[in-house]
Amino acid sequence: MVNGGCIIMAMFWNKRKNSMLVQLLLLSSALLSCINNGNAGVTSPFVRNEWPSVDIPLENEIFAVPKGYNAPQQVHITQGDYDGKAVIISWVTADEPGSNKVQYGLSEGKYDFTAEGTMQNYTFYNYKSGYIHQCLIDDLQYDTKYYYEIGDGDFSRRFWFRTPPQVDPDAPYKFGIIGDLGQTYNSLSTIEHCLETGAQTILFVGDLSYADRYEYHDVGVRWDSWGRFVERSAAYQPWIWSAGNHEIEYFPYMGEVIPFRNYLHRYPTPYPASKSSSPLWYAVRRASAHIIVLSSYSPFVKYTPQWTWLQEELKRVDREKTPWLIVLMHAPIYNSNDAHFMEGESMRVVFESWFCRYKVDIVFAGHVHAYERSYRISNIRYNNASSGASNPVPDKSAPVYITVGDGGNQEGLALRFRDPQPDYSAFREASYGHSTLEIKNRTHALYHWNRNDDGKRVQTDSFMLHNQYWGDNRRRRKLNKNRLHSVLDNLPLSLIL
Ligand SMILES: [Fe+2]
């Protein structure tokens, strides 16, 4: 790992343009910087806020209601089972209940299969939702493009999706990671850039619509506009949902006091498939990844349902089948921004030792409207009652923690990072963007953070992630075992016996 001071030193030695005196000054300043910051990483001075932090007006065509009487809108899909052979398709019809059917097949316009879903609607204060349809289609083939049609008659609509490859340790797969998206022009930039990367599935780390920034009837209206906004991606690529604080929507002044009501009515998750008792925490396996979704805003201390479920789910993770273990949550447990500082601390205390014991590869979070990546560190020796130890230390078993709450919502960027940069923080920048994780095989995955840079997608923080389970030691052991097998295979049977 290279820190900011060392970069300055490298530039200094390469360019050799300055006078000896200036060089000496730079060298001493670089050395001082190394001493002051310890192992701390880079604080990028770059800030990119392309557009004002205001929601796109409702009359903008980006939110246009599809033409035609009762035409399906707000179409989105998510994984429908544990292993990726099922999809849940959701959509809204505004005028009347309409059909719950999904017709689907292997070629466009030729639908050999039909599935029947369910329909519900609800009220939120004086807002009355449209008719919300949800339909599970299962027994799909792996790694196959399906075409589907929803709605009735002349105003039906057609989409497609691709199922993941069968769960396999070496299955390559590309995830996009987005958080705190909202519905501004910055949000639109993020979605468009993510579409450009060819990400096959989106891991969403909470805070969807920011509709809770509105009041009364407009809360529901902005949930609807957001559904139409993300359809350009979410009707084709499954989004794996997790909930943030903006989904809580505890509004006693409106008489709305049941948390997550809008979110839960609109964004189903396949939680029963992972033996969870709540749609807010669950797990799916997809290609070579095991993805665990946690809820920062549900009880998680010892003996609570979420704690008990996670304890069991971690035992079910089979790294021989799914080498990549990824955790999603909303409030980051390592964050050196002034915004939301220490808010993830209680979850860190409860779950961090498990993340290290089970060698989680990467933990993605949102909440803070900036980008930050940690080194592999842990603070599991924390015990202020006896030892007094309370600082994170380098730990090869620990995950990399990545905060990607920089989707572009109306609250704007979190511009104030704490100074000095803590030793655990490898790279941080207050700009909008999203991440991609491109799994190559069981040992390597290529990671990028993509900044929204005046309409362009710029890969800004990139590294090759080495799998925590199939790392160097295990690979060596495996190779040695294979070599031993081949030696044994060539030995005369009498010698082996
Ligand atoms: Fe948040």
Automatic annotation (TrEMBL):
This is Purple acid phosphatase. Its EC number is 3.1.3.2. InterPro entries: Calcineurin-like_PHP (IPR004843), Metallo-depent_PP-like (IPR029052), MPP_PAP (IPR041792), PAPs-like (IPR039331), PAPs_C (IPR025733), PAPs_N (IPR015914), Purple_acid_Pase-like_N (IPR008963). Belongs to the metallophosphoesterase superfamily. Purple acid phosphatase family. Residues 174-371 form the Calcineurin-like phosphoesterase domain. Residues 398-456 form the Purple acid phosphatase C-terminal domain. GO terms for molecular function: acid phosphatase activity; metal ion binding. PANTHER family: ACID PHOSPHATASE RELATED, BIFUNCTIONAL PURPLE ACID PHOSPHATASE 26. Residues 72-163 form the Purple acid phosphatase N-terminal domain. Homodimer; disulfide-linked. Residues 1-40 form the signal peptide. It catalyses: a phosphate monoester + H2O = an alcohol + phosphate. Its cofactor is Cu(2+); Fe cation; Zn(2+); Mn(2+). It is an enzyme of class 3 (hydrolase). It holds the Pfam family Pur_ac_phosph_N. Keywords: Glycoprotein, Hydrolase, Iron, Metal-binding, Signal, Zinc.
